[in-house]
């Protein structure tokens, strides 16, 4: 077969393990790109990997040849041991995953979202404003709570049940576990380790996986029970899961077909929403908040746009959307400035392929470093500067939504939902508040000081740790 793509030298047995980052992932991927070009080849035990560093390579491989690259790499810890392989984002590209996508396409289309969920988004944004008035110092926890309730309401028609179970807190706990489980375990490299007994010394990963799996199973059951109860009592607002179940019931009544697989797919795709939507949207909004404090002139101009259209005697609403081009540019720039998922969710190839004369074998993990696109000066001038005007002055510039939401068959089905939800939170926040940095904060002049470059890259913070924030949420 043709040669493999260029890459760093691999050592016997361990391959390129030492070249793989354990933190600030995309900074290492970008360095590999500088040295080896748009496509870099790496081998670790049991796995071949390519890292992509240009939009063109990502588009040509993942978009144009989408059907060859629609699988996900296998990860023993999160998929097999914790059992999260039923979630849309982690499923292989199998017929059930296709069923998920078939349900998600119409349910998350721009039309459906505007028609069914605009009021919900506005209520979520107002809840955020109110908590900013009451407790501005816990704005991060308030943002998490308002977005979490909105996503939960949209999915299940409720964010708690009649026994006082708080869906947001429980989903947030699961997010912590899924983040831990995808952090990279030895068992991911050597899947045979999953057969080690739980009591074996050093098998803490198996005991953790067992307890995280239990939490997830309990939560799945809780969500299903809650929906069934609310449907029986005819309560709760209209939402994804109930709307889909009602449609399936209608189909069943008409045709008498067995719908059990479809029903399970509705529950499982619905369960994926919180996991896929909460942290990503929250980070995108935190990028916006940080940018407003670092670039006050942008903030002032955005507020002018809002004052011109909305004034101070009513709240902004979606009817104002077309009249505020600068706000649209601020949103695009917030998404570009720090893509929330800086190397999206890796894909895997399902057959052998050749690209630009290089051989990519079946089963190769594909890591698209979209952060690198956001920092490519040939695409975006002065890329670290937050400059919404770049989208106004140059209509041909690459829209960040074309890469931050991924590529091909796996591209994020929630991109419209994310944009609409962000839009109302951004406009409402600027309508109600002036955002300033507390005195004495470090200047945050460079990217490296601003963002943490994790799996999801979040603005860094000086005042408290993430776990404290989650605790805050739990008690708020
Ligand atoms: C700013 C917010 C968001 C960002 C940056 C984002 C980004 C992404 C990315 C990069 C992927 C992987 C794409 C790929 O593999 O090529 C993805 C997948 C996914 N996203 Fe989003 N997302 C966001 C919000 C949402 C929302 C609001 C939903 C609503 C339900 C959602 C649902 C999903 C689902 C279900 C998948 C899995 C798709 C699959 O594997 O087939 N996302 N998202």
Automatic annotation (TrEMBL):
Name the Gene Ontology molecular function terms of this record.
Answer: heme binding; iron ion binding; monooxygenase activity; oxidoreductase activity, acting on paired donors, with incorporation or reduction of molecular oxygen
Looking up InterPro entries in the UniProt record yields: Cyt_P450, Cyt_P450_CS, Cyt_P450_E_grp-I, Cyt_P450_sf, Cytochrome_P450_fung
Keyword tags: Heme, Iron, Metal-binding, Monooxygenase, Oxidoreductase, Signal
Quote the record's binding site residues for heme: 412
- Cofactor names: heme
Q: In which pathway does it act?
A: Secondary metabolite biosynthesis
**What family does this belong to?**
Belongs to the cytochrome P450 family.
The entry's protein name is Cytochrome P450
- Organism of origin: Tulasnella calospora MUT 4182
């Amino acid at each position: 077969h043709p040669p493999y793509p260029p890459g760093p030298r691999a050592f016997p047995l361990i391959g390129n393990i030492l070249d793989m980052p354990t933190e600030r992932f995309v900074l290492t991927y970008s360095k590999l790109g500088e040295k080896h070009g748009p496509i870099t080849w790496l081998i670790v035990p049991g796995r071949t990997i390519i890292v992509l560093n240009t939009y063109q390579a990502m588009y040509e491989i993942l978009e144009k040849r989408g059907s060859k690259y629609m699988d996900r790499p296998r990860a023993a810890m999160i998929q097999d041991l914790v059992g999260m392989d039923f979630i849309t984002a982690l499923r292989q590209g199998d017929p059930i995953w296709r069923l998920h996508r078939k349900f998600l396409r119409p349910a998350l289309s721009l039309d459906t979202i505007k028609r069914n969920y605009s009021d919900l988004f506005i209520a979520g944004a107002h809840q955020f404003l109110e908590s900013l008035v009451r407790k501005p110092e816990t704005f991060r926890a308030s943002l998490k709570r308002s977005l979490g309730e909105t996503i939960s309401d949209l999915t299940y028609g409720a964010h708690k049940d009649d026994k006082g179970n708080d869906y947001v807190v429980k989903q947030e706990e699961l997010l912590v576990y899924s983040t831990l489980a995808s952090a990279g375990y030895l068992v991911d490299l050597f899947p045979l380790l999953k057969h080690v007994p739980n009591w074996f010394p050093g098998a803490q990963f198996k005991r953790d996986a067992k307890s995280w799996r239990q939490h997830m199973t309990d939560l799945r059951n809780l969500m299903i029970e809650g929906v069934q109860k609310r449907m029986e009592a005819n309560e709760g607002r209209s939402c994804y899961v109930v709307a889909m179940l009602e449609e399936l019931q209608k189909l069943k009544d008409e045709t008498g077909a067995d719908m059990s697989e479809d029903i399970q797919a509705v529950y499982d795709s619905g369960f994926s929403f919180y996991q896929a939507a909460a942290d990503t949207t929250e980070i995108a909004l935190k990028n916006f908040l940080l940018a407003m404090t670092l670039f006050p002139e942008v903030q002032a101009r955005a507020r002018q746009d809002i004052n011109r259209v909305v004034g101070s005697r009513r709240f902004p609403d979606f009817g104002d959307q077309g009249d505020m081009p600068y706000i649209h540019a601020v949103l695009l720039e917030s998404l570009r400035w720090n893509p929330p998922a800086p190397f999206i969710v890796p894909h895997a190839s399902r057959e052998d392929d050749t690209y630009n004369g290089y051989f990519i074998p079946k089963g190769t993990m594909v890591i698209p470093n979209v952060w690198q696109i956001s920092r490519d000066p040939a695409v975006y001038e002065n890329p670290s500067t937050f400059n919404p005007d770049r989208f106004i002055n140059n209509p041909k510039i690459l829209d960040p939504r074309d890469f931050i939401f991924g590529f091909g068959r796996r591209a994020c089905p929630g991109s419209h939902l994310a944009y609409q939800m962000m839009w109302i939170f951004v406009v409402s926040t600027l309508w109600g508040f002036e955002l300033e940095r507390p005195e004495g904060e470090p200047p945050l002049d460079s990217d490296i000081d601003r963002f943490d470059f994790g799996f999801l890259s979040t603005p860094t913070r000086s005042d408290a740790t993430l776990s404290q924030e989650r605790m805050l949420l739990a008690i708020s």
